[in-house]
Every structure is written in C-alpha cells, then in structure tokens.
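Page 37, top half.
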Amino acid sequence: MNLRPTTLAALFVVSVASGPAIGQLPSLDLSAGIHLIRAEVANTFDSRARGLMFRKSLAANAGMLFVFSDVTTHCMWMKNTFVPLSVAFMDEQGTIVSIHDMQPQNETSHCAAKPARFALEMNQGWFAKKGIKAGARIGGVDKAPPPR
C-alpha cells in the first residue's frame, strides 16, 4: 500500500488516540474461591474510560479488572457496551462491597455501595451462578499493576 505522508500521519494520530487495541491490555489471573478468572487490566485513564466498549462477546471466565487511583464510591455505565455484564466493586483487599447487573448500551450509573479500589466486570450473571456475593474475596488483585 502506498500512502502519502499526510495519510500516514493521520493514521498514526487515530491509532494513538484510540488507545490500546483490543487484547493489548495487560492481563492478570484472579480467583473467586475455586473459580479462576482471566482479567484484562484497565489501570490507565484511557483504558478505564474505554472498558469493554464495542466488544461483541466475552469468554466464559474472562473479565476486566478496573484499578482506580482513589478509594471512593466509583460508578460504572454501559455506554457503547454490547455485552450484558455484572460488575463487582471491591475494596483494597479484594473484598466485594457490591455487585450490580448492567444492561447493554445503557447509561444508567451503577455505583459501589461503599468506597472501592477495584471493579471487576464479567458476563452478566457470572457471580450469581458461582454463588459469589458481597463479602466474598477476589484473590490476586494485590498483583494488579498500579493505577496510572
């Protein structure tokens, strides 16, 4: 393909502005009791803002771990997100403070019941099917890269 310099520059700007490509985020192995989770890690402003937007599917035991820079009552929404999700908000030790089911392409805010450091998004119903409720602990969050 032969591109003019201005076209190449425009492609570079679009590539940088859109952030990491799907599958380019770091990942981390987590556990919920006997259940293993492979989570992509969103620890930057851009990766947290994009989250799982525009995805068409999510593997059975896969999710996204959001690492926040402050411990506060964080909220999530589903703008441009096509997969129904459940979100578990967790404190600094990985203890779940609340779980919410979220509907695709919906801008309703779902907020942590208490201050949280992390949020873990999984396919909708994943936590309920595994019997995981508020008060349960997600192992491995201590190995998450720090927020940037």
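Page 37, bottom half:
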Amino acid sequence: MTALPQPSETFEWRDVHGRMALVCRPLEPFAPHIFTSRFWRLGASSDADREESWQDIAGALGADGPRLLRAHQVHGATVVAQRQGHPIGPRADADILLSADAAVAPAVQTADCVPILIADSRTGAVAAAHAGWRGMAARVPLVTVEALVAEFGVRESKLIAAVGPSIGPCCYEVGGEVRDRFAAAGFSEWELTRWFANEAPSLPTNPPMPGLNRRAREGHWFLDLWTAARDQLRSAGVREDRIFVAELCTSSHDAFCSYRRDGDRAGRLAAAIRPAS
C-alpha cells in the first residue's frame, strides 16, 4: 500500500472496514464522518462511481448505513437541505448539502476540489460542501454557513468545520483569469493577496508535483484554497478555534485521487457526514 502522508495534528488516519480514511478528531464527537482515500472502490478509477462504491461510504458511517444525500456537482453554490422524515428527492444540481436527519448523510466527491464538512454542536445539523476555484469564488464556505443558519437555526459560534484533502498551494497553479474572477466577485485586495501568490510555498509534508516550478509562469498564480476556505468560514462567523484543515495536497500524494496529476483516469474521493443520532 502507498505510504500514508501525515495530516495536520487534528486529523488522523483510521482503518474503516479495511480501507483507510481520515477523520477530524474535534468534529468526531458531534458527527460521524470520513474523508476517503484512493484505496476505496470510489477511488479505484474514473469509472468507479457506481452504487456499490457509495454503499461502502454509507456503511462506514453506521452499522445500518444511512441513506446518502448526493447531488450533481456543478461548481456552484446551490444548496439542497434534507429535513427530518422527508423523502430524498432526485439528485439536484448543487454543491452544498445539508441534513438534520440522522438517517441521511450528505456526501460529496472530489479529485482536487475542497471538501468541507460542518456540524453544529447544539442542534446536530450537518453540511457537506464541494468547492473548487469556481465554488470558492462563489463563496461556498460562507453560503454553507448561512444556509445552516437559515434552514436549521444553528448558531455560527457552535459550528465545527473540517476542510479535507484537496490540491494545495504547493501545486495549484492557475491562470490570471481565475484571480480576475475572484476580484470581479468582490473579494478584497487583502484577500486576493492572501490567496494568490507568485511563488508556491514550501510545504515539507506536501512535495510539489514533478516538473512544476515553484515560481509561477507569467500571467499565472498559485492559489491557496485552504486559506480561502478558512477565511470564508471565519468571515461567516465560525470561530477560528473550530476550523480544522487537513493540510494534505491531493496532487502531492498517491494516497489521494487528483485530476490535476492523473487527468481523466483519476478516481474520486468522498467526504461524508451523518447527523448524530
């Protein structure tokens, strides 16, 4: 098996039914959840997105396996909310999924984009969100928190957020049009300076992809989605000491699926969370 990279201190690897997954320790007491690795059936190949692959994910979240709330992810900020006792409708075009029903677990899939799992320590409501650069420009982290408040009456100060493995600033070189999209969306110069850099940071636990120069090409930037997610969650009212980032780059490590590294043959990772019973 590929060696497992070391996450930040608040995350740890777990053997879940013979497959390795990450959990966020501060989130765990409030909501069962997982961030999967390449070693799950879903991560095996680009055509592994089948029902049996998702049954693995559901089974990992409880003895009986909750029903999964999923969506057709479209790199936007549309919300689908599941209320207690309501039937799950057809999969909608959405990237933010909410639930307050312990029998229903929101789940998103990624292959470099940022997976965000959130739980409310007071009401038990949870969210799973998917954000690539388009979703981050559309303020997915902030919209997720606002939707939890509107749908389930949560208090922002009681939320706990976990940001799972995604492409890191060590590897994510983007064109100037991406930075322009963030600027057009109204983000401040301070935020743009924090999130876009001319040079990739040196991250000892996340080596850059082979052949990638640390200095961005002309008209390009290195985008830090981890800091963008943290900043947006904080601006939405989530306490700094309740935001946890795995700090593992999917493109740096073979334990994860990465579209940037592997192209069309990349499998998918899942992030799923279940309201506590």
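Margin note: Residues 11-166+243-273 form a domain with the CNF1/YfiH-like putative cysteine hydrolases fold (CATH 3.60.140.10).
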